[in-house]
Amino acid sequence: MWIFNKKQPELKSGVLEDIRTDEEKKLDYKLEEALQAQPITWSSYSDWLQTDAANWHRALLVHDQDGSSSCVGNAIASIATILNALEEKAFIHFSPRWIYAQRMNRPSPGMYFNDASQIFVDNGILPESLCHSDGLPEDKMNELNENKIESFTTIAKIYSPQSYFWINGDIDSIAQALSIQRPVLIGVRFGDNEWGRDVPIVTQTELKYCHAVTILPNSYFMYNNKKAVMIIDSWGTSNPLRGFRILTEDWFNNTRLVSAICFTDLPNPTLSPAEHWEPFLQDLGWGSKGEEVKRLQLLLQIKYGIFKGDITGNYYGYTTACVKELQKLLKVEPVSGYFGPITRKALNATL
């Protein structure tokens, strides 16, 4: 375990606690609703070092947020770089300021996860070369003259994901997202003298700070007999791992983990259209599970192109949103996301 002696940035809480109600959180898109679990093999750290996933540190820009509380924006900028590299096989480094300066609580420091994620989806992100941010203090990170340039706004929207999904906080669920080459945004809580090392430690200390980082795709392994992941941080490159850290399973519990999110553009499976659709006879809504939900998801995917994930049979926030889109198409009111008698009647009439 390495500890480096560089003067640490002034510690601030860059991640704000989620203030939404439980009812609002119910509408969140959950990853298990759009991705079927696959077996995970936890290789040794030494074996993982020989994989392609261990090479991200050679190409990724490690941001330095020193002087600001923009860790969430920095983490999303790293995610944008990774997603673009996976799609286009080329590296474009993106600007955390574009995300951070559009936050709902500006000019107060820090950022909400759901706010940052929605900004990324709705407004995209600009390359760092067009919106400089590295090492800027808080007041400069709040300035965004670039959004007054119409072409920049158009460019930013090119680099936007389709949606984002919340992940259960356990390390195995997070590894599921990593295994399909998706980086994961997480927020962690820590106390004094816990974080500033290559392998942060969990001690019995007062939790004072909240910080956001990015877990790299396919970067999960066993480290000192514990499950662990590799992250990219935004504290510069002065530590021995040059801006990267190893987080062990100790950090993935309700006390330490704030939230976990991945951004995904899951492709449509190559499914043959059904020749005939049987009418729907059951009311379905948030929390429903089973074959009838699968059949609804399949129809939303094949006939309407609305549902973009795997067919899971779980009806939560994502399926609710897709049913809302269906209700708009069928001119059903209210647009509630509940698949009840009115929506069933309108849909069955089209089958």
Record field, number of beta strands? 8
Widest beta sheet: strand line-up: 3-8-4-5-6-7
Low-pLDDT regions: 1-9, 266-275
Instruction: Assign the structural class, choosing from mainly alpha, mainly beta, alpha/beta, alpha+beta, or little secondary structure.
Output: alpha+beta
Termini separation:
62 Å
Q: Which key phrases capture this entry?
A:
single chain, 351 residues, alpha+beta, 6-stranded antiparallel beta sheet, 8 strands, disordered N terminus
Outline the structure in words.
- With 351 residues, this protein is of the alpha+beta class.
- It contains eleven helices and eight strands.
- A six-stranded antiparallel β-sheet has the order 3-8-4-5-6-7. Strands 1-2 form a two-stranded parallel sheet.
- The longest helix is centred in the N-terminal third of the chain and has 18 residues, at 71-88.
- It is globular.
- Residues 1-9 and 266-275 have low confidence and may be disordered.
